[in-house]
Amino acid sequence: MPAVFEFPLRVTATDLDGLIRHVNNLVYLKWMQSAAVAHSAAQGWPAERYQELGAGWVVRSHQIDYLQAAFDGDEIIVRTWVASLNKVTSLRRFKIVRVSAEKETLLAVAATDWAFIHFATHQPKRIPPEVANAFEVVADE
Questions:
Q1: 65 is in which domain, residue-wise?
Q2: pTM for the full model?
Q3: Mind giving me the DSSP string for 65-101?
Q4: In the chain, fewer beta carbons within 10 Å around the N or the C end?
Q5: Beta partners for residue 5, in sequence order
Q6: How many other CB atoms are found less than 10 A from the CB of residue 21?
Q7: Tell me, what DSSP letter sits at residue 137?
Q8: Which has the minimum average pLDDT: 13-22, 66-75, 91-100?
Q9: How many domains does the chain divide into?
Q10: Does 138 reside within a domain?
Q11: Structure letter (DSSP) for residue 131
Q12: What phi-psi label fits residue 54: left (phi over 0), alpha (psi between -120 and 50 degrees) or beta?
């Protein structure tokens, strides 16, 4: 499995805001979450496996720089990768691009800081080796 995961999607009318008719900024966040969850599942860690472990990821912060707008019908790829993996935290980066036959257009760059927690106590927990070893860290993409 490549270290940089690609999550394709297509913009629908429900993704648009009511004013300018471009993709609402909160939708980018939803795409990021979906891509992160899909990447984890592709690496052997779907939600059910985290439930069995009794621990998993929660978001500490998001940072998004919006560069271009996306519109109804656009084909999008959310590229994501793990940029760092520490004792209890991980930084995941994203590039969101519009793809067409002619070119790719960078729409947004983003990052999410995650913490690994014990579900019952909600306290930070050291990332188990079996989780850490499922992801290749890519310093910069």
A1: 5-132
A2: 0.95
A3: EE-S---TT-EEEEEEEEEEE-SSEEEEEEEEEEE-S
A4: N
A5: 80
A6: 11
A7: B
A8: 13-22
A9: 1
A10: no
A11: H
A12: left
Predicted confidence (pLDDT) per residue in 32-84, tens digit: 999 999 999 999 999 999 999 999 999 999 999 999 999 999 999 999 999 99
110 CB burial (10 A radius; 0-12, 13-18, 19+): buried
Give the phi and the psi of residue 78 in degrees, each rounded to 5: -100, 115
* Confidence category of residue 141, pLDDT binned at 50, 70, 90: low
Q: How far is CA 24 from CA 17, 29, 96, in A?
A: 5, 9, 14
Q: Tokens 């927990």 sit at which residue? A: 125
Q: Which two tokens stand for residue 73?
A: 């019908």
Strand-pair partners of 96: 78, 108
| CATH number of the domain that residue 45 is part of | 3.10.129.10
